[in-house]
Every structure is written in structure tokens, then in C-alpha cells.
Amino acid sequence: MAEPQWCEDSQGKVVGTRTQVCQVEGLTYTTTRTVNGVTTVTGQANMIVINYSYGNTGQGTFAHQIDVSAYNG
Questions:
Q1: pTM confidence score
Q2: What whole-number distance in Å separates Cα of residue 7 and Cα of residue 15?
Q3: Which of 54, 50, 53 is nearest to 68 (CA)?
Q4: Would the pLDDT of 5 be above 90?
Q5: What angle do CA 57, 20, 61 make, to 5 degrees?
Q6: What's the rounded Cα separation, in Å, for the pair 66 and 49?
Q7: Distance, CA of 6 to CA of 16 (rounded, Å)
Q8: Count of other CB atoms within 10 angstroms of residue 24
Q9: What is the per-residue DSSP string for 10-25?
Q10: Which of 3, 17, 34, 60 has its CA 20 to 30 A from that of 23?
Q11: Other CB atoms closer than 10 Å to residue 69's CB: what's the count?
């Protein structure tokens, strides 16, 4: 399910309504390799992470999804 536009515009804050909540954050994923005790960075990717939860008050259930998208790296 696509998250609403207000979620994507939240700029790192937790925002929500009675039945929906989301947070958008950035992260950096780094891979390394260690040879003979020396660790070297082998790759790095910058990503956007969208945490989005939604529910139905009539059913008492909720769902949570996480969207991850790399924009550099």
C-alpha cells in the first residue's frame, strides 16, 4: 500500500492521524571487509526509510510496512 503524501513530507518527525502514523528517516548502509585485522569500507549506500502503520478501529487490527529506497551509492 502506498503511504500518503503527508507521510513523505513529514521530514523526520513522527506524524499521524487516528488510524495512521509514519516517520521518514535517512540511513547510511556500509559494507566492510576485514583482512589480517585491517577493516576496509567496501561500499556505502544512502537510503530513505519510510515506516508506515495503519489500522482499522472497527476491527482492532493494524499493519506496519517499511519502505527502503537507495538514492545514492
A1: 0.74
A2: 7
A3: 50
A4: no
A5: 40
A6: 7
A7: 9
A8: 20
A9: STTS-EE-SSEEEEEE
A10: 60
A11: 8
Q: Which three cell numbers stand for residue 8?
A: 513523505
**Digit-coded pLDDT (tens) for 14-52:** 999 889 999 999 999 999 999 999 999 999 999 999 999
b/e per residue 30-67 (b: at least 16 CB within 10 A): eeeeeeeeeeeeeeeeeeeebbbbbeeeeeeeeeeeee
State how far the Cα of 15 lies from the Cα of 62, in Å rounded to an integer. Answer: 16
Burial of 9-23, coded b for 16+ CB within 10 Å and e otherwise, reads ebeeeebbeeebbbb
Residues 15/22, Cβ–Cβ less than 8 Å: yes
CA 40/CA 5 separation, integer angstroms: 39
